[in-house]
Each structure stands twice: as C-alpha cells, then as structure tokens.
Design brief:
single chain; about 100 residues; mainly alpha; 4 helices; about 70% helix; about 0% strand
Length: about 100
C-alpha cells in the first residue's frame, strides 16, 4: 500500500486503503458483537478466591474445592487406560532389552 503511494499509483493505493479500512471495520464489528459472558464466570470465581484468602489470613476456614485426588481401589482399567498401560510396559520392555543387548 505504501509503495503504491510512493510510486504514484493512486488507484492501487486507494484500493488497498479501502480494503484496509473495510477489514478494520469488519474486525471491530466482530469484536463488538462477540459474546463475552466468560468474564462473568471469572469475576465470580475471583470473588470467591478473594474471600477464601481473606478468611485464611484471619484464621478461618472456608470449605472450597478439594485439590487432592482419591485413589481408586479395586477398579479395573477401562477404555484407553488399559491400552496406555500395555504400551508403557511394552515400551519399557523394549528399552530394557535394547540396553541389555548393547
């Protein structure tokens, strides 16, 4: 666009300038009409987190989401989990065998 203006090509310059302005207008329109309701969720969780931090400073405990994961006892592996375990064991066996041979 700038090179067209420098070289004196007025028609090409105006076409590129028009395309630039139209693309900026389309971008602004798209951003303006985008649903931005995800900020409300972030505000709610930020408020709860602030309450929990303030309560922790004062020595109170507010029940929150548990961060520890419980181990499943006696559960059989289903789906892709058992395939992953099989492939891990096979990979380890192949690596051990290659290390022993070399």
């Amino acid at each position: 666009m700038i090179m067209c203006a420098v070289n004196g090509e007025l028609f090409s310059f105006l076409v590129y300038l028009g395309l630039l302005l139209v693309s900026v207008a389309v971008l602004i329109f798209a951003i303006w009409h985008m649903k931005a309701d995800f900020y409300e969720d972030a505000l709610a969780s930020a408020g709860k987190r602030a309450q929990m931090l303030e309560a922790a400073k004062e020595g109170r405990v507010i029940a929150g989401k548990s961060t520890c994961k419980k181990a499943a006892k006696g559960r059989k592996l289903k789906g892709l989990g058992r395939i992953r375990v099989f492939l891990q064991r096979k990979f380890i066996a192949v690596n051990v065998r290659q290390n022993l041979e070399s």
